[in-house]
Amino acid sequence: MTTPLQLGIFIAITGLIGLLTWLKCRGADDGDRRSGHDYFLAGGGLNWVFVAGSLTLTNLSTDQLVGMNGNQMLLLAWWELAAVAGLMVLAFVFVPIYYRNNCTTTTELLERKYQSKHIRALISLLFLLGNVLIFLPAILYGGSLFLKSLFASDVPILYFAVAFAVVGAAYAILGGLRAVAVSDTYSGVLILSLALLIVYLALDAIQFDFSGIPAERLTLIGSNTSPIPWHTLLTGMIFIQIFYWSTNQTITQRAMAATSLKEAQRGVVAAAGIRLLIVPIIVTLPGIVAYKLFGDVDDAAFGMIVGEVLPAWLSGAFAAAIAAAVLTTFNSILNSSAALYVCDLHEAYIDADHDVPRLSARVSIVMTVLAIGLVPVYAQEESIINTVQQLYGLLSMPILSAFVVGLLFKGVDARAAIFAVVLGVGLYAILSFVWTPVHYIHAMFITLVASVGAALVLHKLVFGGRIALATRAA
Q1: How is 143-204 classified by DSSP, letter by letter?
Q2: Residue 67 and residue 227 in contact, taking contact as beta carbons nearer than 8 Å
Q3: How confident is the model at residue 308 (pLDDT cuts 50, 70, 90)?
Q4: Long-range pairs, 358-365, Cβ under 8 A, ≥24
Q5: In terms of Cα–Cα distance, which of 321, 53, 54 is closest to 198?
């Protein structure tokens, strides 16, 4: 049961992060708040520290700490190691393109390349569906379940979810991207520090002795039956990372909000360094140690090892760290989703002259309510991380195909690209849910190649266009 000390530490640290965020953001100039570009990009006022901090913690939540440790094998580190390559592509390929085009959303770039607001709207809609129907409710459920277990609470899980949603929405609505990025950074220092402490205490618990742990759990070369077969690193893995880190509005919005291109690149490179040196350790080693101490316990591994090695008085601080990770991921996705709706859909099809903060707040409230309503649906799933990964594939490669075609080829008809995106969604659905001849990472690569090919073939054969490589990426 929760002790007064645990609860007190939890409330104090959570409140301190909120206070420090308010002190940092008060009086900050976010430019013209009626401008979507200024409002959603914090007036271009983030320095590299907050870019790096927000990039790091937006991606790091209970699905990584709990889900990846739950596999109890070193192999899962490849997700984080490959992410370094994705961040480098963002820093030196995509960020310069977004800055040259003065983009507010990643999809704005597509409108300029294809000269069509419709493909921008389609991709935004796909991102929004993924955020509202998959990520927001999954994040609320995962964080709520962990805290409920950590505190051994009898409070219904939906109550935790509502609390997370309300606080996360408040950050996104009242503070905008600046408050989100600042709170991400402060929370990131806390959670990374405690996660590294847990790694050390876990290793100390087994006296840094890995004997007795099966070799397949300590290797970085995956077999055909492993979660990441080695050959998937040569096909879909890198493209998954390019999609996530370079085209996903939730991620790129932080880089686009920097004070300059150079500052954005410094922040992204710093985030890559954290990804390389720290994150792989904290999402794999606790689970491996848990295997030696408790056996094959799946998703319970991280919670069990924390309960075993962390002093009782620190559990409240760790709960605050987990809550911070959930909140920062939730409010980041909520803020970017509002940007997609306001800039890509509402302004293009409903009303170009509107109060940006008010509309953003209304949209955020609606999405928050929908996410809360879907929490019970995810509570019925056996593995939350596997469910999210499988569903996410429906969107990632079809969306990436639109960027690949638009940036690498000149003047491709938007209708061809739109049809190819829809085709890609259907193809991956078949390869993942109906007929599964290959690993889903290979299926993603097949989907990307097929979607790019379909766009080019339709452009030439149906719309009578020429296929020519672009002379420059933007």
Answers
A1: HHHHHHHHTT--S-HHHHHHHHHHHHHHIIIIIHHHHHHHHHHHHHHHHHHHHHHHHHHHHH
A2: no
A3: confident
A4: 360/39, 360/40, 360/173, 361/173, 363/337, 363/338, 364/169, 364/172, 364/173, 364/334, 364/335, 364/337, 364/338, 365/169, 365/173
A5: 321
Residue with tokens 């913690």: 57
Alpha-carbon gap, residue 174 to 182, rounded angstroms: 13
Is the distance from CB of 401 to CB of 452 less than 8 angstroms? yes
pTM metric for this prediction:
0.88
pLDDT in tens, 125-159: 999 999 999 889 988 887 887 777 766 678 888 99
Specify the CATH class of 4-380 in words. mainly alpha
Segments making up each domain of the chain, as ranges: 4-380, 392-474
User: Rounded distance, CA 355 to CA 333, Å?
Assistant: 21
Residues in the chain: 474
SS3 71: helix
